[in-house]
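TL;DR need structure tokens for one chain.
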Amino acid sequence: DRTQSASEYTLGRIAFARGDYTLALRYFDRILQKDRKNVTALRAAAYTLIRLERFTDAEAYYGRLLELVPESADSGYSYAVVLMAIKEPARAEEVLNGYAEMLAGNREAELLLARARRDQGKVEAIEDYRRYLAAGDDSRVRLEYAGVLEAGEFYARALEEYRLLLQEAAAGSSRAGVSAAELRYAVGRLLLIADNAEEGIAEIEGAVADGFTGDGEMEALLQSGRVPPAHRESLRRIIEEVASAKQP
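>> reply
TL;DR here they are.
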């Protein structure tokens, strides 16, 4: 049995390396059918399920795995990844906090914790993101940070982050995954609701001129009740112009 299990594990690893995750899982599960407490096969099967994006199944496998080896920080991190994938950020945060000392300095774990707290609307996420970015800039993460600041109504700080991202996008150095026009709209949106409404309308008009076509986003902003009454008609006019330009 040990020889057969070793062979099946090796075949599973080969299948995994070739990208045939379904076959790999089949081999790992054969081992687990004979030995439910085989930690090596269980860890391999759980990770394979992540690759297959079968996150609910992966959650069950990682639960079993951590019952057997609760001290495994790597498995704890992977478990938290799965919990985030199935929209359970509170449980993900709890798991990560259980391995805080072992995961200290692990930037991916730090970012995952920030996202778990963000998804729960926790203000602690702001400091998590700030600390992560202080150790190394990443425009994609900075975009998330700006969104967290905006959600927390720290508008001045969010505006600084969006403007920084806009400068990077204009220089062609941003990896945030959004266009300069989208970032300019974000700047205009914040100015409109929190600082300088006249300048905000001007920035939104500039964003549209630069190619922003999110009339749905602007409509949601208009309906949010955050737009000053004196500028609602101006925003409505921009929305209608964008919608009209989309007509065939």
